[in-house]
Design a protein that fits this description.
The structure holds two protein chains of two kinds. By secondary structure, chain A is mainly beta. Chain A is built from no helices and eleven strands. Chain A has strands spanning about 5, 10-15, 20-25, 30-35, 45-50, 55, 65-70, 75-80, 90-95, 105, 110-115. In chain A, the strands form two sheets. In chain A, strands 2, 4, 5, 6, 9, 10 and 11 form a seven-stranded mixed beta sheet that branches. In chain A, strands 1-3-8-7 form a four-stranded antiparallel beta sheet, with no helix packed on it. The N and C termini of chain A lie far apart (about 35 Å). The relative contact order of chain A is 0.33. Chain B is mainly beta. Classes of the chains: A mainly beta, B mainly beta.
């Protein structure tokens, strides 16, 4: 079946603008995760959804970052008033039930460049 | 919370040699340890995983070992090939999400 998809694949924006990144998880996966990957760096956890609730938002770096999920489907990550340090690849992953002990399947990522 | 350290950050080997990447973790409650491979510009993909009730797992040229007492686990790649060149990430299960190491860039030269 279809894997995790993300859009847009690339986004260039000006400092101070808001951006929305979209993630479509694998159908039937209740858990959804957002990670940030700066150039040449590891995967930084941002937020976790179980269904449409977010029990763990501990990784969001500031109040400019927010995310929502409708049902057990699409999620959007919003970054307000973007800064140059927000430039990174934003990866979304989904897993079947969200126990933290199961395979996470990653999307291709959105490459965000803030000028 | 969980913290994962990964070493080395870069590793260069000749084709046919073995490669070993090591990770340590801090939370003794972690019991799931996957390894992901990320080729340049691509998404991370799971290559092998191990759970805490198992000490070793093999899949063709790839093996993972786990020492729960010492809280470390390792990835072993034998008979390396140029297509093994990529960034490899270890991870350990946290309370909700996986906690990743910072990655190892493996270069296999022919």
């Amino acid at each position: 079946g279809a894997g995790v998809s993300q859009s847009p694949s690339n986004k260039v924006t000006e400092k101070g603008k808001d951006v929305e990144l979209r993630c479509d998880p694998i159908s039937g996966h209740t858990a959804l995760y957002w990670y940030r990957q700066r150039l040449g760096q590891g995967l930084e956890f941002l937020i976790y959804f179980q269904g449409n609730s977010a029990p763990d938002k501990s990784g969001l770096p500031s109040d400019r970052f927010s995310a929502e999920r409708t049902g057990e489907s699409v999620s959007t990550l919003t970054i307000q008033r973007t800064q140059q340090e927000d430039s990174a690849v934003y990866l979304c992953a989904s897993s079947l039930s969200g126990t933290g002990e199961e395979t996470q399947y990653f999307g291709p990522g959105t490459r965000l460049l803030v000028l | 919370g969980e913290n994962v350290e990964q070493h080395p950050s870069t590793l260069s080997v000749q084709e046919g040699d073995s490669a070993v990447i090591k990770c340590t973790y801090s939370d003794s409650a972690s019991n799931y340890f996957p390894w992901y491979k990320q080729e340049l510009g691509k998404r991370p993909q799971l290559i092998i995983d191990i759970r805490s009730n198992v000490g070793e797992k093999k899949d063709q040229r790839i093996a993972v070992t786990l020492n729960k007492t010492a809280k470390h686990f390792s990835l072993h790649i034998t008979e390396t090939q140029p297509e093994d060149s990529a960034v490899y990430f270890c991870a350990a299960s946290g309370s909700t999400a996986l906690i990743f190491g910072k990655g190892t860039t493996l270069s296999v030269s022919s």
